[in-house]
Amino acid sequence: MRPVRAVFLALTLAAAPAVAKPPQEMKRISLDVTRANVHDVLRMLADKGRLNLVVSEEVQGTVTLKLRDVAWTEALDVVLASRGLGMERRGNILRVASLKTLQAEAEALVRLKEAREQAAPLRTWMIPVNYARASELLPHVRGLLSPRGSVSVDLRTNTLIVTDVEAPRLP
After folding, report:
1. Do residues 77 and 115 touch, judged by C-beta distance below 8 A?
2. Residue 127: count of CB within 10 angstroms of its CB
3. What's the pLDDT score for residue 77?
4. 15 or 39: whose pLDDT is higher?
């Protein structure tokens, strides 16, 4: 295995601007590396942003950078783009994987959501309307329904009758 030469000439923090931003957005760095392992560069950038880092096994290779006084987030975006990688951020955890993997996971989540929606039981709500005609609200309510949902109006009581899957509860 060929040794990787990496020279970190400067890694400095610039003075924080007067504009109120989250601390990790204000950090600016200068970086000069030659054939540095992409894992090492990602770890360094995550440290600057005070983020935890999870890197997929498929992330490999080296990167050469010469950046002066750039936001660490811009440097991260450049490194990811140069290797065909993407990121997913959950709280203070940054996950890095190939764009193909992240796209496949996103598509799988969409399919899972659709499958859950199709399998969910339907529920009916009777919503009395005051100070408006229920029939005038139909277009607005239809725009909020799932593909399985329906809405009708009882003109006698000015009530919306909505049948749809129940919205998932967030933790």
Report:
1. no
2. 12
3. 93
4. 39
